[in-house]
Amino acid sequence: MNEKELIEQLHSIKVKPDEEWEKRTIRLLGITVKTQQGANKKLRSYYINLAYKNIMGAIITLIVAVLLAGGTAVASDAARPGDLFYPVDTFMEQVQRSFTSDPQALADLEINIMQERVREMEQLQTENNMGGLENALGEMNAQAERIQERVEALNQLREENKIQTQDQQQIMQKLQDQLQAHLEVMNQVQNQLQEKSGEDTEKAQQQLQQVQTSFQQGLQESINQFQNETGVQLEFNNEEQQQNQGTEDQIQNQNQNQNQVNPTDSNGNSNGTSNQNGGN
């Protein structure tokens, strides 16, 4: 059963209100209705249906809460893509999004959800569940897109001076820390997949490579954009990350210095070459 089927089943519950309930609702709403008049019948029907729909919505929410409190919440939280309760897990995540109005809190929520997606991917590979692994990688890719959307929203709010740079910095620091950790996990999973054989395994390797590239080109670029626009340099959690960044900066500085020493002319030749040819 997927998320859509679960919602449809809950909404398929049909309970018709009795006449006594209708009378109490009318009194509660403070409406005086003369049933012999057609116009008032329509008005009566409108308010009854409105109240009934609201109450049924609350009942459905209560049913979901009771199911979750009865153990489904534990099962769904431990579920992985392809499991019976996984749609409940993603449904509850969507409920959390619906009740999170603060943009920074919403970005933080999406980063936390990504941790769960990566953990699911790692567990499925350990169990050699290639079908589930394929689904998990798709979920990771979709979650990365959500994070990018949240970061872009924060960028817009910062440009409009609706949030402070230091507030967004906390989110971006967490994103960078988690991104590096996720890439390390994906590298480990990729190495383990290379030790296996089979068509499904090769397909999983290709998909994992695509997700890694998406993370590096998408999320990492979002981090770099924040640093370039604000001048804030995020911290590194380990020496390896700092060394990698230092190497990238060194290469970039070397390229800039090389361009200054040997600027190119309109023909694509360096000045040194151009002058030498001119001397000949």
Structure description:
There is one protein chain. The chain has 280 residues and is an all-alpha fold. The protein folds into two domains: 3-71, no CATH class; 100-233. The protein has ten helices and no strands. The chain is flat and about 70 Å long. The N and C termini lie far apart (80 Å). Residues 32-39, 70-76, 240-255 and 272-280 have low confidence and may be disordered.
For the record, the count of structural domains works out to 2
| Rg calc | 29 Å
Number of strands: 0
Helix-strand pattern, N to C? HHHHHHHHHH
Derived structural class: mainly alpha
The biggest sheet amounts to: none
Intertermini distance: 80 Å
**Strand percentage, roughly?**
under 5%
- The backbone outline, from C-alpha atoms, is flat
Helix content: over 70%
- Provide the low-confidence segments as ranges: 32-39, 70-76, 240-255, 272-280
Average predicted local confidence, pLDDT: 74
> Number of helical segments?
10
Give a brief outline of the structure.
The protein has 280 residues and is mainly alpha-helical.
Give me some keywords for this one.
single chain, 280 residues, mainly alpha, 10 helices, flat
Q: Topology of this structure?
A:
Layout: H1 3-11, H2 19-29, H3 38-77, H4 86-98, H5 103-126, H6 130-159, H7 165-194, H8 199-230, H9 239-261, H10 271-279
